[in-house]
Amino acid sequence: MTFGRLPIFVWTILVTSFLAVFALPSLTTAGGLLLLDRQVGTHFFNVAQGGSALLWQHLFWFFGHPEVYILILPAMGIISEIIPVFSRQPIFGYKAIVLSAIAIGILGFTVWAHHMFATGMPNATLAVFSADSFLIGVPTGIKIFSWLGTMWGGKLRFKTPMLFAVGFVALFLVGGLDGIHLAVIPVDWQVTDSYYVVAHIHYVLFGGAIFGLFGAMYYWFPKMTGRMMSEGLGKWNFWLMFIGMNLVFMPMHVLGLLGMPRRIYTYGDNLGWGIWNLVETIGAFILALGILLFVINFFVSLRRPATNEADPWDAFTLEWKTSSPPAAYNFAEIPTVRSLRPLWDEKHPDLADWRVGE
Amino acid sequence: MTGQAIVGRPNADGRGRTALALVVAAESVFFGTLILSVLFLRASQTGWPFSHPSLPQLVVPSVNTLILILSGVAAWGSERAIQAGRDRLLKLGLVLTLVLGLVFIAGQVFEFTRSGMHPSDQAFGGVFFALMGFHALHLLAGMVVLVINLARAGLGDYTPSRHETISLGAWFWYFVVAVWLVLFAALFLV
């Protein structure tokens, strides 16, 4: 095994770990200073005594923006494992995906103030943070095209893990395009603190991160427990969540453009927001039903007789070589990894990836 | 026999070093954002006291800084001592590091009270309190490690080839000394 043959999920966890080490201390600083303000009587964030409320926002978002990449990068890694297996093809653009994950990790530290476009910062500052925010669309776009390239011309098998992975690509794309809109400063000024922003965060973090985690549950559940989850319930689970999530979060774009602010619990009858909020409420119930099916599927599947099948998906990576669930001391000797798909190589010696070009 | 195998490869896996490097990285961001917060507060208002302190005002902080640097030298000496297998010198170095560290913290408390400042004096009172306080907390954390190391040295746990926690304790101490130099510059010289 070399760094150049690590599964992409491992790469994204590595980048995520670096983000956690470098982003979270800023929250510690913010929390420490807030504690002193509240308990000792200092005035870091008290404008009346020479403090600055804006300082809180800077400290919070210097943590808060890398934090969203802490949430999304592992999910990107997960679907980079699932899509090749269910497309029967090697991942397209391995190096590009890995380098773009690293680029997202680094750029993630340079865009925090795009959460603060409406705070009256100087124009030069606005311009820099706007440009950086556009820039982060490039590595993200590279990933989307790599996933599409992996599926292109493959023999697609739409099992539940693959449904969630493809759902991720579609929904994350919507959220990514919203993100581009919000990086445009005049647009951001118009829709800041409105439901447009709420729509954006849910398309990237619910449609993205959460769909990735559901895909991971269905994909690795057999490895963890030795039992398959029900495909029938899984498909209902996916479609209810997919439809429900779009019914909840798509109308938020409209509401944001109609001027509905975030963080309100009620509003006037005459604002024209009622119908869209009704659609969202119906969507929320459908979404919840989908998640309930997952919980049922999870516990029912746990009670099924174990099949202990080592490799139910005909997968590519080493975890599927050992038993399900993996026994203690899983590999008697360290397996030799000669390509990105060591298990494929072993199952198909004549077609092994490392032979390509021989 | 497994125990012996582990003894046979001192510091070989380097996990302690990696962990310390991660601690130092995270702590650097913590102090970095603290200092940037101070500079941000300073830049956003006029009439910041101590922006150009006179030389007499700098005497106590400077002497105190010198004491902390000396404690760093003592920590370095303790690491060199065990490398040379000189057990008594190791203990002396650790005790000296601890004593000088305590003198420094006492000096910090003296300096803060002498200045007549209070944490709730506008934003700047809190700045001095927070920077000196968070730094002193890190010194105390380092001292906990040094005390444990001293106790283990008393039990004869260390050899010239196996003394990873002595090195790690010393390196963390160097880091905290270095942080103070930056804080000193941010508080008194900028």
Topology:
The complex is a heterodimer of chains A (358) and B (190).
Chain A: H1 8-39, H2 53-87, H3 94-107, H4 123-135, H5 137-151, H6 160-183, H7 185-191, H8 195-225, H9 231-257, H10 274-303, H11 342-347
Chain B: H1 2-7, H2 15-43, H3 55-83, H4 87-114, H5 122-154, H6 164-189
Helix pairs in contact in B: 2-5, 2-6, 3-4, 3-6, 4-5, 5-6
What does this structure look like?
The complex is a heterodimer of chains A (358) and B (190). Chain A is mostly helical and 358 residues long. Chain A is built from 11 helices and no strands. Chain A has helices spanning 8-39, 53-87, 94-107, 123-135, 137-151, 160-183, 185-191, 195-225, 231-257, 274-303, 342-347. In chain A, α1 (8-39) packs parallel to α3 (94-107) and α2 (53-87) packs antiparallel against α6 (160-183). The longest helix of chain A is centred in the N-terminal third of the chain and has 35 residues, at 53-87. Chain B is an all-alpha fold and 190 residues long. Chain B has one domain (13-189): Cytochrome c oxidase, subunit III, four-helix bundle (Four Helix Bundle (Hemerythrin (Met), subunit A)). Chain B is built from 6 helices and no strands. Chain B has helices at residues 2-7, 15-43, 55-83, 87-114, 122-154, 164-189. In chain B, α2 (15-43) runs antiparallel to α5 (122-154), α2 packs parallel to α6 (164-189) and α4 runs antiparallel to α5 (122-154). Chain B starts with a helix and ends with a helix. In chain B, 29% of the residues are buried. Mean pLDDT of chain B is 88; it is low at 1-11. Chains A and B meet through α1 and α2 of A and α2 and α5 of B.
